[in-house]
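User: I'm preparing a small set of examples for a lab meeting where we compare how different chains pack in three dimensions. I only have the primary sequence for this one, and I'd like the structure in token form so I can line it up with the others. Please keep the answer compact; I'll paste it straight into my notes.
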Amino acid sequence: MTSNLIANTNYFGEGLTFYENNKLDKAKFKFEQELVLNPKSEKAYLYLAKIFNIQKKKKLEEANLNTVILLNPKNEEATYNLAILKLEESDYKKSKKLIEQLLVFCETYCQKSKKLEIEIENSLKK
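Assistant: Understood. Below is the structure token output for the 126-residue chain.
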């Protein structure tokens, strides 16, 4: 019976609905519940990072982005968002390294990454 309850629970889906309706605390709770059942849920960590970005909790955002990249080194969105975070922290070298890595495997973030690479290069020249 317990396994049926767990199997029928879609914490990630519920979290996504709350996130899309800007109910961030409820979304955060659901994503955390998802991680209890599925500790390797790349998407749950990614959405937690997005929530922490909105809440301006940069250290928690960074920790979750790093976890996404640890689980999937080719996650474009996490790599791109971490590069932006590092750029905002004036860590130009780390940001540049992340963008260079992203440009090797990007499919959907190529244009954005190239623009960010130019921005980083300009920042390094200052």
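A couple of notes for your slides: Confidence is low (pLDDT under 50) at residues 1-5. The two ends are 63 Å apart (CA to CA).

User: Perfect, thanks.
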